[in-house]
Every structure is written in C-alpha cells, then in structure tokens.
Amino acid sequence: MMRRLIGIGLAGFLLLAVLSRVYPFGDKALHGLAGASFSLLASAALSPLLLSEMHGCDALELALAVSASGLGAALAAGMAKELLDLGGFGRPEWLDLAATVAGGLVASAGVLAMTYLAASQGSGVERLPQAYAPFGVVLAIPVSEALIRRLFGRPNSVSTRF
Predict the structure, then answer these.
(1) Which of 31, 25, 32 has its CA nearest to residue 9?
(2) Which of 31, 78, 123, 156 gets the most CB atoms within 10 Å of its CB?
(3) In contact, 93 and 30? CB cutoff 8 Å
(4) Sign of the C-alpha dihedral, residues 29, 31, 33, 39?
C-alpha cells in the first residue's frame, strides 16, 4: 500500500513538472511544485520534533500534526511570495497563492497517509523524514531554475512572472 501511494504521488508531481514547461500551465504548476516542496521539507524538519513531543499519541493525531505542519509551511510560503509581489517584486495574483496551497495540500495528503500507515503499524515512522526531505528537494529543482532564470538570466518561454 505504501509503495502504491509513493508511486501515485511521484506520478502526480512528475506531471506537474512536465506541465511547468508547457504554456499556459507553467506558472501555476511551478507554484504547485513550490507548495509541495515547502510542505515536504517542513514535514521532514518538524516530524522528529513532533514524534518526540507526541510520544504515546494515536497514529491519526500524529499524522495530522505532521501533515498540518507541512500545509502551514506551504501557506506561509505562498503568502510570503504574494507579499513580495505586492511590494513590487512581481504581479500579485490570488491564483498563485491558491496553486501554492494546492500543491502543499496534495503533498500534505501524502504525508498524512504515509505517516498514518507507518504509525499505525508501529514501525518505520522515524525514517519517514528521510524520505520526505529528498523528495521535497527534487520538487524544488524546476522552481529554483525558473527563479534563477528570472533573477539572473533571460526569462524562459514558460513563466516570466514566477
């Protein structure tokens, strides 16, 4: 079951990565990838702390806490980006914030499912952050490339606003 969830999640995020190269989906797909990346990285960073603080809690409560931390990070990142846009860095759009949060929501749902399954089986939950972090870094690669192109190079044809 866990391998199927990981496979489905990977396929979905690969689709987003492909769409980030196709106009008109590029900008929103990049926001979705950024939200997913922030969600996974925050879940990986905060999961050990939550595991030690919530020792003895039931599996669902732990999974919800880890998942919510990631979703909160995606929301904070999307709001920070839109505030930068309001300050003159770019063009603020509510759909950008929605796409960032949607990507974080998808990743948080995967974190919720995997953390719950591992915690309810009583083994492996301590090793999950080691899976979340690299996946979050990989999802950040297209976002980082677009941001570097925007800041330091000529804009690509996909997105000149991200």
Answers:
(1) 32
(2) 31
(3) no
(4) negative
Radius of gyration of the CA atoms of the chain, in A = 16
Cα–Cα distance, 84 to 69 (Å, whole number): 23
Name residues whose C-beta falls within 8 Å of residue 29's C-beta, 6 or more positions apart in sequence. 16, 17, 19, 20, 99
pLDDT digits (tens, 9 = 90+) for 118-153: 888 877 788 888 889 998 999 899 889 888 888 887
Q: Is the pTM of this model over 0.85?
A: no
Write down how long the chain is.
162
**Two structure tokens written together for 97:** 């914030």
Taking 50 as the pLDDT cut, the residues of the chain under it are 159-160, 162
How far, in Å, CA of 51 to CA of 74, rounded? 21
Half-sphere exposure of 20 (CA within 13 A, CB side): 25
Residues 119 and 117: their CA atoms lie apart, in Å, by 6
